[in-house]
Amino acid sequence: ETGVTQTPRHLVMGMTNKKSLKCEQHLGHNAMYWYKQSAKKPLELMFVYSLEERVENNSVPSRFSPECPNSSHLFLHLHTLQPEDSALYLCASSQAAPHGGTQYFGPGTRLLVL
Amino acid sequence: QKEVEQNSGPLSVPEGAIASLNCTYSDRGSQSFFWYRQYSGKSPELIMFIYSNGDKEDGRFTAQLNKASQYVSLLIRDSQPSDSATYLCAVNEISSGSARQLTFGSGTQLTVLP
After folding, report:
1. Is the per-residue pLDDT at B95 higher than 90?
2. Which residues of B touch A100 (CB under 8 A)?
3. Which residues make beta-bridge pairs with B92?
4. Contact with chain A for residue B58, Cβ under 8 A
5. pLDDT at A11
6. Residues A90, A105: contact at Cβ < 8 Å?
7. Chain A closest CA to B62's CA: distance in Å?
């Protein structure tokens, strides 16, 4: 595997389900990100893990819970989601530098909440 | 609130023409600027990044940055139908610690007509 991988690629879940999205990066990076992309809206940064620091968008509901066990793996735990949470969820990784570098994206998980 | 503005389009150009994509940003402290291309149903892929005022060329692509005017653009020369995609402008805000956050525009949809 190369680059940034995400599983599953597609997910359909009910509002009472609990599921997790997984991301793995093979680029030697030390920062990882979760983004939400809804139709006709800009990419929305949800969470950042960089070295020992976690940064989050305060507008993200608590039904989304990130976990980053090491610099190569990132999870997004989902529970009691709402239909408006249906979107493309993208993981990205980069070097944790204050300047320069690039974020590389995984293929995304297309989530549908019924 | 930091903002990145793009004309949503759609922008249509004939094959072989120059496509010009524009982006303005609100935060004068922004340091790094990125252009991503996103095909329908796919994740964003990096085209170019630019840090310094002026032009940066890479093959058929030229990024232009004017920090005084808070303006960044992407020119695509000899446009091909395969360039048809949504182009996302992203701006790097320097946050505390080592985390790096990108603010994305909503994207410009480009169609290159054969």
Report:
1. no
2. 32, 51
3. B32, B102
4. no
5. 96
6. yes
7. 18
**Candidate from A9-13, A57-61, B67-71, B98-102 with smallest mean pLDDT:** B98-102
Most confident segment among A55-59, B30-34, B42-46: B42-46
> What pLDDT was estimated at residue A104?
92
Higher pLDDT, A28 or B2: A28
DSSP states along chain A? --SEEEE-SEEEE-TT-EEEEEEEE-S--SEEEEEEE-TTS--EEEEEEETTEEEE-TTS-TTEEEEEEETTEEEEEEES--GGG-EEEEEEEE---SS----EE---EEEEE-
Burial of A22 (0-12, 13-18, 19+ CB in 10 A): middle
Which residues of A are less than 8 Å from B99 in CB distance?
31, 48, 50, 53, 55, 96
Max CA distance (Å), chain B = 48
Cα-based distances in Å from A78 to A13, B11, B18, B44: 10, 37, 44, 23
